[in-house]
Write a structure and sequence with these properties.
heterodimer, A: mainly alpha, MetI-like fold, 15 helices, globular, B: mainly alpha, 1% strand
Chain lengths: 301, 338
């Protein structure tokens, strides 16, 4: 016997279980008030800093250093952006971020979904399925810093320091476990009949993967790709470690402003807006998959 | 012709941990469900003929190679380096065998111990706060109407922001004459020198982490709550249970497995903290906000004490492996409890 999960109704019941007892009416009023206060506070605490980032990038120095601080400046200016672009090869660094993010995402989604397909469809000997899956989970879990030193040495020996390919390889490897775990979940949800029919029709594993499984998982693939791209775009530790000048990505450029450029807040926040905006747009577009992605499939929505 | 799901060569029921197609018992403590719970008690999944196994191994091979190069080899090399003394900044020197000296040095290093302590406190403190706030907001947001979905999307913003940008942003907000101190002034409190006083600096980095990652708990909890079965709530409604009783005796127990998984996942990520620390305080003032990640980074890439950094890395890793096993166990429990 299965429990029916009427999502809409459950939501309403949890939010406001109706009650026949009159004395609880006041409780309902109290709950509504508490709810609104909580949501209001949440919104303010989220939005004010976010807007602060945006408006500061359009402020003159008098406004961003003014006390009392003002969210909305007296006069708006694009100087922050102009100077930022004039003094830095920002286009170059932006392209670094774009190239590294796109290449590593494409690679990790390709290699990762193949591996996920292999893991979800094959029965390997010696419990290898479980061992490989655990290894991949562990790779996602351990702090990247524990591999940082030898990583730096390897890249130095390969003379890959300060190159885009070092970062492309690194982020491909970082996102692989993430892609594998997510895609295993999606692949396991596919109806088995299709693949079985394809096999009866004489499709080999490779054809089934390319012609049946991948097209059917297209939305999941897109979501996974976007989530990996966000992770690659935001990554900082390896970017700061493996790059000096040429291959710097936007977060590294951003951190450079802290150490050597004083309080150029208009430029710093302008760079912040440029860095955050692309990922924000994409990530909000796939927020339906965020839960699943970030819990490695442990919680599904 | 369509062979049935029990045909030869297909996977055994329950061979894998995914519990998507198990029958649901009425007394379930389920919270993790799938959009389409299938009625069949058997695992409905396609699996290949035995003759095709080599092909699937070929599918796996590229990933295994990449991961071997990027994780196994560096971990092994870290292990090897941790038993050697090597200061990379002295040209021409080679790693010298040192036995357990690096481990002894790390364990007796005051800064290492402080960093480990800070990392643990940071992880526990931020995760506890994020769980409480995230669960509270998730309950408040629960109705499913369009405006709550809009609010939810807005509340997600911090989580998606580049951590370095978040660090810079809060550096501006927590500036001596910044917004936060102005607000404190408005309510009659003294301004706080956030990055000068050790305790406040630590609180500041925790607050920033909480600001950024509460949305994570929020969306996971929203998803989990939305998937709860409605029967217990109807029963509670008939029995006239109060809102608190409903939360305490129905929602909370049913959510427990998800809370556990979320807490562990969040903790594992929290203890990795590097970006925001690097930008906000760089471990300072003194060592007040030094964490294991920043400690290892400095040992290795600033003081070039490769052996010391490697030993600290392995100590950190051992702790994390232990925690990972906990996550796996909790994850399995959570999906089995369906």
């Amino acid at each position: 016997m299965a429990v029916t999960t009427t999502t809409e109704e459950t939501r309403r019941l949890i939010a406001a279980p109706e009650t026949r007892q009159r004395r609880l009416r006041w409780g309902n009023v109290g709950w509504s008030v508490a709810r609104w206060i909580a949501l209001g506070l949440g919104l303010v605490i989220t939005l004010v800093p976010t807007l602060w980032l945006v408006t500061t990038s359009f402020k003159h120095e008098v406004d961003y250093l003014a006390y009392p601080p003002r969210l909305i400046p007296n006069s708006w200016t694009l100087d922050g952006y102009r100077v930022l672009f004039e003094r830095n090869e920002l286009g170059h660094f932006f392209m670094n971020s774009v190239v590294v993010t796109l290449s590593s995402t494409a690679l990790s989604v390709l290699i990762g979904s193949m591996a996920a397909y292999g893991l979800s469809r094959a029965k390997l000997p010696f419990k290898l399925n479980g061992i490989l899956a655990f290894w991949m989970l562990l790779t996602r879990m351990y702090p990247a810093i524990v591999t940082a030193i030898p990583y730096f040495l390897i890249m130095r020996e390969l003379q890959w320091l300060d190159t885009r390919r070092a970062l492309v390889f690194t982020y491909t490897a970082f996102n692989l476990p993430f892609v594998v775990w997510l895609m295993i979940g999606f692949f396991e949800e596919l109806p088995p009949e299709l693949e079985r029919a394809a096999m009866v029709d004489g499709c080999n594993a490779w054809q089934r993967f390319w012609k049946i499984v991948l097209p059917l998982s297209a939305p999941a693939l897109v979501a996974t790709a976007i989530l990996s791209a966000v992770l690659a775009w935001n990554e900082f530790l390896f970017a700061v470690m493996l790059t000096r000048i040429e291959a710097k990505t936007l977060p590294v450029v951003m951190s450079g402003f802290i150490t050597d450029k004083g309080m150029l807040w208009d430029q710093m926040t302008a760079l912040g807006v440029i860095t955050v905006l692309p990922v924000l747009v994409f990530a909000l577009a796939v927020q339906r998959y965020l839960v699943r992605g970030l819990t490695l499939g442990a919680v599904k929505e | 012709m369509r062979p049935g799901p029990c045909g030869p060569g297909h996977s055994e029921p329950g061979a894998h941990e995914c519990a998507c197609a198990r029958p649901v018992s009425p007394r379930s403590t389920a919270t993790i469900t799938m959009a389409t719970a299938l009625p069949s008690p058997r695992k409905r999944r396609f699996s290949a003929r035995l003759g095709e196994q080599p092909v699937f191994i070929a599918f796996l091979l590229p990933a295994i190679i990449v991961l071997a190069i990027s994780s196994l080899y560096p971990l092994g090399r870290t292990f090897w380096l941790s038993f050697h003394t090597w200061f990379m900044n002295q040209p021409g020197t080679e790693p010298q065998w040192a036995g357990l000296a690096n481990y002894r040095a790390a364990l007796s290093d005051e800064v290492f111990r402080t960093s480990a302590y800070h990392t643990a406190i940071f992880g526990l403190g931020t995760v506890a706060a994020e769980l409480v706030l995230g669960l509270g907001l998730a309950l408040a947001i629960m109705t499913g109407s369009w405006w709550t979905r809009v609010i939810r999307s807005i509340l997600l913003i911090p989580m998606i922001m580049t951590p370095v940008v978040v660090g810079v942003l809060w550096r501006i907000l927590l500036f001596d004459k910044g917004l936060v101190n102005y607000l404190l002034d408005l309510v009659g409190l003294d301004p706080i020198l956030w990055f000068v006083e050790p305790t406040w600096a630590f609180i500041a980095v925790m607050l920033v982490d909480i600001w950024q990652w509460t949305p994570f708990v929020l969306i996971v909890m929203t998803a989990a709550i939305a998937a709860l079965p409605s029967e217990p709530y109807r029963a509670a409604q008939i029995d006239g249970a109060s809102r608190w009783q409903v939360f305490r005796y129905i929602t909370l127990p049913m959510l427990w497995p998800v809370i556990l998984v979320t807490a562990l996942l969040r903790f594992m990520d929290a203890i990795k903290v590097f970006d925001t620390i690097y930008v906000l305080t760089n471990g300072g003032p003194g060592y007040a906000t030094e964490m294991l990640s920043s400690y290892i980074y400095k040992q290795g890439l600033r003081y070039f004490n490769i052996g010391g950094a490697a030993a600290a890395s392995w100590l950190f890793l051992l702790a994390v492996i232990f925690l990972s096993l906990l996550v796996i166990w909790a994850r399995r429990r959570a999906s089995r409890s369906l």
